[in-house]
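Attaching the record inline, Q. Sequence:
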Amino acid sequence: MTKPLISVVLCNALVLFLFTSSLGASFQDEKEAKETADIKARVAKLDIPTLVEIKLRNKTKLKGYVQQISDDHFVVSDLKTDAVTNVKYAEVQRVKQVKTHHMSDFKLSAIVFGVVTVLYLLGNLTNEP
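Structure, as predicted:
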């Protein structure tokens, strides 16, 4: 009596294991497809050239300028070596735009004008009797 019961329990466990493992794999595939679509949309919003930091799924990090955007990949030129790398969207774990803090010519001119004006006024105030 116990042998048939054990075989039925083992068969049920095997069927449940096979069903849940395939269900988990399809869920993982859907998750990766959504993440790839998100990365592709994020890259599509970038201007060319834009400085980015990229972390790949194999834990490799890239930092450089996006030079070209295609349907299945984008091209990044390395910041230090200018080496060009084709990066497939499916390989990317994270892409982050790096903000550059360069002042525009107008802001720089306004600051210089303000400093010169203040120095001129201070110089004229101290020369008066």
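DSSP finds two helices and five strands in the chain. The mean pLDDT is 79.

More tomorrow.
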